[in-house]
Amino acid sequence: MSAPQPSQPSHQHQHQHQHQSQSQSEPQSQPSPSSSAASAPTSALSAVVPPVLAEVVRSGFVEGRHRGALVVLGADGAVELALGEVTAPVFPRSSNKPMQAAGVLRAGLDLAGERLTLAAASHSGEPFHRDLARKMLDEYGLDPALLQCPPDLPLDPVERETYLASGAVPDRITMNCSGKHTAMLAVCAQRGWPVETYLDPDHPLQRIIHRVVEDAAGEPVAAVGTDGCGAPLMAISLVGLARAFRSFVGAEPGSAERRVADAMRAHPEYVAGTRRADTWLMREVPGTLSKMGAEAVQAVALPDGRALAFKIEDGATRALGPVLARALTLVGVDAPVVDRIGRAPLLGGGREVGEIRASF
Asked: What is the pLDDT of residue 46?
């Protein structure tokens, strides 16, 4: 019997998915900001069978596939490539954080530099992340017990081992969203808003953030849910998510949106961590804004106005790097960091025997 042959990636862009009727994907009614259950479709990818964005290839044999949807916007903001259903709502998860940070600024908190970056971060829980979160709480006279994000371990696996070896236990400050929650608490304390209910979708701060998301995405929020950290989570389409990132990069200097984008790009190690793709990309491709989200969501905007966003349907973050690298190549990013981001080897017996690779 002959050995199985490797499957070759398909470079056809499956444009048949680009022209799906909007009636298949757009919600029929817009829920109020206080809705906790989505009346929109429960999955952005349920209207059509999503295309394969990545293959899992072991010993030359395709043992798995990751489906999803991806959109690329040109410098003029027009859709240049759409794979799968890109106009239906998704939960961007932490890819919404730049918009949440801009909402905090619009609400009146004066943050800049690393502090503003940490407010938009999914930090790795490294010592410099934890130290800054504690310092911010002290600066605003806030008790760490007010944080309503759950106790957690460092997001970065290397840091997690060191943290546990030191005898430390899960902590709210260590949780990757602690910077965002600290900023939310700080502006509530400053404005005299209730701090006990700062995560309520009807809270004045969350209503401001809701408007920021809609303004940036250029579309109504389709549903409101609860993120893993407990904060309200606004659903928008992948097109809207790419449009939002593009709008932050192109916003007027001094605006809340541009201040967030500039801070993240100036201090990328605070957006993610020393061993994370968002940090690498923003550090090595100047002017780029990049933020991943849980359940395998990613959004990127380039300084010339091009932008992309995608979601892996099954939430497998192992496919993020290969898909992101391929998408960056399609938009013309030519830098060594692209290969670094895209490398996702599979091991067998301690040696490399395959890879996860993009298939579009």
From this structure: 54
pLDDT for position 43: 52
Q: What is the pTM of this model?
A: 0.87
> CB–CB of 302/333 below 8 Å?
yes
By CB neighbour count within 10 A (0-12 exposed, 13-18 middle, 19+ buried), where does 99 fall? Answer: buried
> Average pLDDT for residues 84-89, to the nearest whole number?
98
Name the 3-class secondary structure at 175. Answer: coil
CB 322 within 8 A of CB 302: no
118 in Cβ contact with 133 (< 8 Å)? yes
**What's the CA gap between 327 and 86, in Å, rounded?**
15
Using an 8 Å Cβ cutoff, are 55 and 303 in contact? no
What is the distance between the alpha carbons of residues 183 and 256, in angstroms, rounded to a whole number?
14
For 69, the 3-state DSSP assignment is strand
Pick from 82, 73, 92, 11: nearest CA to 50: 82
- Res 30: pLDDT: 40
3-state secondary structure of 134: helix
